[in-house]
Amino acid sequence: MTCEFRRFSLLPPELRTEIWDLATRPTGICGVQYFSILSLLRPLKRFQHHVSNRIRPRQRFLLGLPRPTSDTAQPSWDNSDSTYAIDGGLWTACKESRAAMYRRYRPEEWSDHLQLLKENPQLRFRVVFWRNPNHFDTSATFMVNDMQTKRFVTVLPARDLIFIQPCDQPFDPVCIWDAMPFAAGTITCFGELSNVALEFDPSWNVAELREYQRQWRASVLEDGDYLARFRDRPETYDRYETYDQLVRVSKESRVKATSFWLVDHRLRRKRSPPAAHEHLEKAQIVFHRNDCRFFAMPEGHEDRFCEYPPRTNQNLETIWDFTLELDRVGSEQTIVEIEQDFFDWPFEPEIFEGEGTGYVSPWGILVQESNT
C-alpha cells in the first residue's frame, strides 16, 4: 500500500481551516516579546530603519527591534526569539493563515475600543482595556519599519512579557509607555502592560545601592541634585542613574497594574520545591518563548524555588538580596518625599504592613529554563 499525501491546497477547506487554527498561539499562553528602546535624542544609525512609527510630537523614545546578538550583527526582526516572530509569518503567509490570525486575535476589538476613546476622550485616563478578563487575549497590532518594507507586530498586553533590551543609551523604564505604539497617548501611559522584564546585571550590588541612597537622601535635605556631583565620574554617574531608575519603577508602579521583573540568567529552578509550597508552584506565572520558558518566582520564597549553580561562590550576593534592598530604598525615598510634600500620597499609612517595604511594588524574579 502506497502512502500518498495530498497537496495542502487540495485538502478540504474545513480541514485547512482547522490546521491553520492549530498553527496559531494557543489561548491562554503568555508569550515573550523582545524590543529595544531607542532615544530620539541620540539615534543609532543601524537601528534607524527598524523602529516603530512616531505617534506624537513630544515623544522621546521609539520602540525598536531586538538587540543584535553581537556588535557586528545587523538588526533584524526575523532573527528574534519573540512570539511575534511566529505570528508575523502567519499574518503574511497567505489569505487563509491571515484569516486564522483574525479569528485568534480579534483585532477588531482593539479597533472598536480606539474608536470609543476617540468619541469619548474623557475615558482615556480611566479605562484600562486589558484589565477586563474578557479582553485578556485581545491583541494590539502595530506597524514597524523594516528597511524599505512595513512589518506588523502583534502582542497581548494583558498576557505577554515585554522584555526590554536597552541599547547603550540612557533609558528610563518608567518611560517605556512613551515608546509603546499601542499605549502612549491612548489610555493611561502607566498600566497598559501587565508584565515588563529587564536583564539583571550581576555587578549590581547592595553596598553600592546603599551608598546611592545615602547620596540621594543628603541631596534631598540640601535641596540639590545628587547626580550632578558625579558628572566627572562617568562610571559612578551611570551606575547611580541606573539605580535611580530601578527605584523609580518600584515607587511609581505601587499604584499601577504593571508587574516588573528581573531576569538573572545564572539562576536555575529547583526540581522539587518543598511540599508545603506546592500551592505556590501551581500558581506560578509562566511565559513561553520559542525555545524556553520563564518562570515567575513566588515573592518571599525565591530561595525555595530557584538556586545558583553548585560551583557558584557561596558568598555570592543573590538577586533577592538586591531586590529586597531596592524595596527598602524605594520605601525610604517615598517616606521622605511625603514628608517633604513632594506629592500627595493617595493612601493612609496604616494600610501598609511590615517595616519600610510597603510603599513600593517589589521587583519580581524570573528564571529562564530551556525546553530541551
UniProtKB/TrEMBL annotation:
Domain 2EXR: 5-107
Source species, domain of life: Eukaryota
Name of the protein this chain belongs to: 2EXR domain-containing protein
Native source organism of the sequence: Colletotrichum kahawae
